[in-house]
């Protein structure tokens, strides 16, 4: 099943259909479904796909030349080419009569040993290739997206699936298991493939994380060794985080790093897609109230449940750990995942113009109460200059009564200059009459209602 998240495939096909020179940049981290998207797009099209290598400039030149000859034929100018400029010129000429898709994957590897290549390609895009039917796609890491998106024609960012998109792949499973899978994978397509099989969910989870041979058991430690010079410090920080949100000083205490060094480490883990910096929705980046959370679902799950029991797992007691320590805790672990789902639902209705006011994203809010001298926390929140949405979610089989709303309304005094909206979310249901009693500023949603609405909103011919 292919899900065209954010309509990237449709956008690429639209650009290709204009039958003139086009360029796009595809930004993503590993496992986000880039290869599947490119295969879907290039099917039936004349395509020159080149995966850049982490090697010398000359080796990349020779590899691209060989692939160009394979795709375009043994053209004399290709065989005689001794520089990238000659290759690019011939590739462009071959696309004047017939459309050609030219994909350069892992683009930074290509320009890493030859910085002039980036300027050369930009020059060809603005001059030499303008009269061709070439469509060039440059694939880059997601960390460059924010820096380059305003200067790039047609930047496309591949993001993880939301819960509501993820569940389309697992409609045969109970919603509680769908939530578990989303919480463990974070909606990353590369992780989701480990759960698209006929194995019972719990047995699959055990084999993936709690056996030495498990496909995901050693992934976190291997990843850190490959990408970091001091993986042991990152390991300590991620153990500190687990599935919790932590302040920088808590990470300093665990790692014995200075605030400056710990902050640098968190920035590195953020760039690697492992950690998120979280700030209250009413504050800007750089807030002193910043919290840190493990953003990669597999890392978060592994550091919560597998890492503390590695000795037992490697001595062959993984089954005992799984049954006694993990299974009883899965429901509690899903509570925070449910909070993420509720935020995603708010983002969805906002994107569809159904939110009470426009906002950038749904998040959380926390801060000091001015008179009670304690930190107040609101798990679901969104804001603009004159409005704030305060929300709470209840991961329980019990029905939620007015007490849940009244608890949320106690935070109203913290926002005296804002119009306040109250949104409550529940796994099961609410007592009747809450919205009627309190009017338009109060909304309640059950998990079933959210799923039904989202299913209709994201439904496509491929999955409906």
- Main sheet strand line-up: 2-3-4-1-5
Number of strands: 12
What is the alpha-carbon Rg in Å?
Answer: 25 Å
Largest sheet, described in full? 5 strands, parallel
Terminal CA distance reads 11 Å
Overall pLDDT metric: 92
Structural class: alpha/beta
Q: Outline the low-pLDDT stretches.
A: none
Quaternary class: single chain
Helical residue percent band: 40-55%
Q: How much of the residues is beta strand, in percent?
A: 15-25%
Q: Total helix count?
A: 22
Q: Shape, please?
A: globular
Q: Overview of this structure, please?
A:
The protein is of the alpha/beta class and 464 residues long. Helices cover 46% and strands 15% of the residues. It contains 22 helices and twelve strands. The protein has a five-stranded parallel sheet. A five-stranded mixed sheet has the order 8-9-10-11-12, sandwiched between helices. The N and C termini lie close together (11 Å). The relative contact order is 0.08.
């Amino acid at each position: 099943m292919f899900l065209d998240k954010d309509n990237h495939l449709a956008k690429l096909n639209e650009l290709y259909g204009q039958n003139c020179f086009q360029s796009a940049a595809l930004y993503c981290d590993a496992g986000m479904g880039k290869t599947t998207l490119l295969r879907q797009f290039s099917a039936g099209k004349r395509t020159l796909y080149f995966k850049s290598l982490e090697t010398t400039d000359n080796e990349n030149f020779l590899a691209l030349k060989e692939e160009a000859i394979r795709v375009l034929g043994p053209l004399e100018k290709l065989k005689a080419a001794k520089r990238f400029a000659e290759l690019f010129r011939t590739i462009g000429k071959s696309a004047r009569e017939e459309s050609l898709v030219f994909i350069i994957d892992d683009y930074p590897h290509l320009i890493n040993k030859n910085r002039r290549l980036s300027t050369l390609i930009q020059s060809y895009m603005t001059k030499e290739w303008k009269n061709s039917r070439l469509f060039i796609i440059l694939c880059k890491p997601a960390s460059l997206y924010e820096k380059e998106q305003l200067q790039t024609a047609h930047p496309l960012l591949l993001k993880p699936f939301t819960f509501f998109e993820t569940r389309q792949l697992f409609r045969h499973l109970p919603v509680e298991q769908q939530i578990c899978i989303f919480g463990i994978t974070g909606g990353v397509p590369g992780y989701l493939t480990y759960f698209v099989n006929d194995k019972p969910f719990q047995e699959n989870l055990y084999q993936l994380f709690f056996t030495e041979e498990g496909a995901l058991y050693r992934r976190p430690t291997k990843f850190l060794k490959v990408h970091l010079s001091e993986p042991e410090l990152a390991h300590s920080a991620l153990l500190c985080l687990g599935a919790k949100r932590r302040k920088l000083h808590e990470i300093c205490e665990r790692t014995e790093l200075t605030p400056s060094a710990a902050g640098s480490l968190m920035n590195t883990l953020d760039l690697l897609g492992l950690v998120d910096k979280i700030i209250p929705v009413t504050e800007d980046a750089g807030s002193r109230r910043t919290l840190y959370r493990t953003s990669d679902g597999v890392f978060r799950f592994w550091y919560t449940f597998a890492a503390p029991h590695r000795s037992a797992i490697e001595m062959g007691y993984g089954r005992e750990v799984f049954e006694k320590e993990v299974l009883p805790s899965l429901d509690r672990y899903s509570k925070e995942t449910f909070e993420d789902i509720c935020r995603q639902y708010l983002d969805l209705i906002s994107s569809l113009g159904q939110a009470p006011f426009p906002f950038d994203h749904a998040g959380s809010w926390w801060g000091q109460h001015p008179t009670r001298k304690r930190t107040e926390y609101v798990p679901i929140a969104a804001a603009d200059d004159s409005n704030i949405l305060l929300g709470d979610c209840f991961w329980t089989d019990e029905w939620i009564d007015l007490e849940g709303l009244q608890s949320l309304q106690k935070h109203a005094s913290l926002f005296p200059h804002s119009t306040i909206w109250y949104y409550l979310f529940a796994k099961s249901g609410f007592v009747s009459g809450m919205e009627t009693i309190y009017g338009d500023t109060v909304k309640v949603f059950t998990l079933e209602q959210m799923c039904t609405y989202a299913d209709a909103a994201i439904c496509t011919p491929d999955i409906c």
